[in-house]
Amino acid sequence: MVSFSGHRCALALAFVTFFAASAAAQSSIRFTGGASIDPEQVYGGVAWQSPDIGGRFRIQPGIDGGFGDGLRLANINIDFVVKFPLGTSGWSLLQGGGPVISIVTLSGVDDPPRELHAGGSYLFGFAHQNGFFGEFRVGGGGFVPQLKMGVGWAVELK
After folding, report:
1. How many angstroms separate the CA atoms of 154 and 129, rounded?
2. 114-144 burial, b if ≥16 CB within 10 A, otherwise e?
3. What pLDDT is stored for residue 20 in this prediction?
């Protein structure tokens, strides 16, 4: 039997897979890692970024997992991102945000219950055309990390 949170996770994965297959020629996969504050954790994750939609707008659904502070935390983000090129430097400013679904499990407890929470986050970062990026994410809501700082690499799909 699949739990209610398992259904939502499967739905989010199907969403990402569907859109990745339809626009793979101009999209990218982003691998990220970093640390968060409140809860104090380290995290790693992956996201798919769509090609430009109606100008500079992009959709960036992703999932990451955090460990530490007595919790195991899985966040499913569905971000709407705007990319602003910074002249001819190869760098771009990224801004955006969207809803977050958090799945929380206590670590160090036998047979811990899973809790499902919802919230939102705002993303601010810089990305280089070679794939390197850095980002800050400010969140709010039940168990959504208050501040996440990460770096990563984006791989273009052709």
Report:
1. 9
2. eeeeebebebebebeeeeebbbebebebebb
3. 46
Strands (E), 3-40: 28-37
SS3 letters across 65-123: EEEECCEEEEEEEEEEEEEEECCCCCEEEEEEEEEEEEEEEECCCCCCCEEEEEEEEEE
The CATH code of domain 4-156 reads 2.40.160.20
> What local confidence, expressed as pLDDT, does residue 35 receive?
97
> Which helix (H) or strand (E) is 62 found in, with range?
strand 57-68
Residues 107-138: pLDDT tens digits? 888 888 899 999 999 999 999 999 999 999 99
Task: Sketch the domain layout of the chain as residue ranges.
Answer: 4-156
Task: Fill in the amino acid letter for 130.
Answer: N
Whole-number Cα distances in Å, 129 to 39, 86, 93, 137, 153:
32, 11, 11, 21, 10
Closest alpha carbon to 126 in 157, 158, 77, 81: 81
Q: For residue range 73-88, what is the model confidence (pLDDT) as tens digits?
A: 999 999 999 999 999 9
